Amino acid sequence: MPIRFNTCPHCEERIIFDIEMEDINSSQYPAPVYIVCKSCNKLSTFYVDSLLRVSYKELGKKSGGIKRIDTK
Ligand SMILES: [Zn+2]
Q1: 41 Cα to the center of ligand 1, angstroms
Q2: What is the pLDDT of residues 15-46, one digit of tens each?
Q3: In this structure, which residues have their CB less than 5 angstroms from ion ligand 1?
Q4: For residue 53, what are the domain limits?
Q5: Total of domains in the chain
Q6: For residue 11, how far is its CA from the centre of ligand 1 (angstroms)?
Q7: Positive or negative, the Cα torsion across 20, 1, 4, 9?
Q8: If you average pLDDT over every residue of the chain, what do you get?
Q9: How far is CA 55 from CA 31, 52, in A?
Q10: Average of pLDDT values for 49-55?
Q11: In the chain, what's the furthest Cα-to-Cα distance?
């Protein structure tokens, strides 16, 4: 399972999470997935491309995601 390293858009702390194809709705790219930061416990929407690489991220919960992923 691909491991992604990024930063939380709320608190800017480093975050690490696993993501797999079944975590996203692959009918649209970039596909939203919900990420919950371990440091601040806030949810963000990360948008990933077809290789599950993060394209961009937004604060809060945007529509279209199918799964919430906790960070390690
Ligand atoms: Zn955070």
Answers
A1: 6
A2: 999 999 999 999 999 999 999 999 999 999 99
A3: 8, 10-11, 37, 39-40
A4: 3-70
A5: 1
A6: 4
A7: positive
A8: 96
A9: 9, 9
A10: 96
A11: 31
